[in-house]
Amino acid sequence: MVAxxxxxxxxxxxxxxxxxxxxxxxxxxxxxxxxPFERLVLDTPEGTSEVPVSVxxxxxxxxxxxxxxxxxxxxxxxxxxxxxxxxDDGTPLVVVQNGVEHRGSVAELWSEGPVLPAxxxxxxxxxxxxxxxxxxxxxxxxxxxxxxxxFVSLLEGSGVRLRATDDFHTAAWRKMLTNVxxxxxxxLTLRRLDVLAQPDVQELCAGVLAETIAVAQAEGSALTQEDxxxxxxxxxxxxxxxxxxxxxxxxxxxxxxEHEHITGVLVRAAxxxxxxxxxxxxxxxxxxAVQPHPIPGA
Length: 298
Ligand SMILES: NC(=O)C1=CN([C@@H]2O[C@H](COP(=O)(O)OP(=O)(O)OC[C@H]3O[C@@H](n4cnc5c(N)ncnc54)[C@H](OP(=O)(O)O)[C@@H]3O)[C@@H](O)[C@H]2O)C=CC1
Ligand SMILES: CC(C)(CO)C(=O)C(=O)O
Fold this sequence. Notes:
This protein is an alpha/beta fold and 298 residues long. It has 11 helices and 12 strands. Pathway: Cofactor biosynthesis; (R)-pantothenate biosynthesis; (R)-pantoate from 3-methyl-2-oxobutanoate: step 2/2.
């Protein structure tokens, strides 16, 4: 494929992994960032390497991209409005986020070009501006259709396992299963994924996931209890215990957490359907009680 020009909004764990993949597939990457840095360096199971990217901090002069990829936390999307406003010239926008609000989060902000919802399975931690640790291989899923097929072709040769799915709604709820227990539990306990090995924590995870399946089904997904069992069984194979979660990293950094777009979405959907979700509601209450501020000594 002819090299494409790709703009990546957000330069954290996922922005870094997308830039790495796009560069590996032969494309030209521009990172649209809030906090500038000189070099993008990825520390991966295969080794450490610098990814050549252009870094821009102001939307003023940017434009002319073939693809725009949005990789901020869901709650930060409104603050990217100046970038989106500048770049929305008919170009496709790929939204790579957790949760189930991929289209909703940008509905008011991207109207000229098409939106492609995307899911990513990877353990990625931004340790300082421009420095990203990727602790697992990367797998992605995008919504099926012509645009999804084009995005799959775009990243051919990148090393990312990427496929398009005709049931993105179910895929997004399945990804939710990997976040709805680990993200809150690691953020609240300030532990990495090793915390999930504790038998009592595993029991809590199983309960949280059983509630999530009931809500996901009521929301029209095709998930079953087998999916929850598989997620729990696969989790340790997928991620090393040294990995954290995106929510844990925000808690440690004293940043706002993404809970309203993960556990919050789930609890609000449960309320609409009259489904009891006491475990998820408790986690949500505790996450709401966590005030964003740096943790001394963390
Ligand atoms: N990390 C992971 O392993 C995984 C994360 N995800 C999901 O991917 C999404 C992204 O997560 P992740 O990469 O971890 O998040 P990070 O917090 O690591 O990175 C988010 C980036 O967005 C930037 N940002 C925020 N607001 C703006 C803005 N207005 N303009 C430009 N940049 C902005 C931040 O800037 P600054 O540098 O200034 O902080 C930061 O670089 C989330 O939905 C997360 O749940 C999904 C799977 C795995
Ligand atoms: C699957 C997991 C937990 C991987 O780190 C993730 O999606 C996240 O950190 O938000």
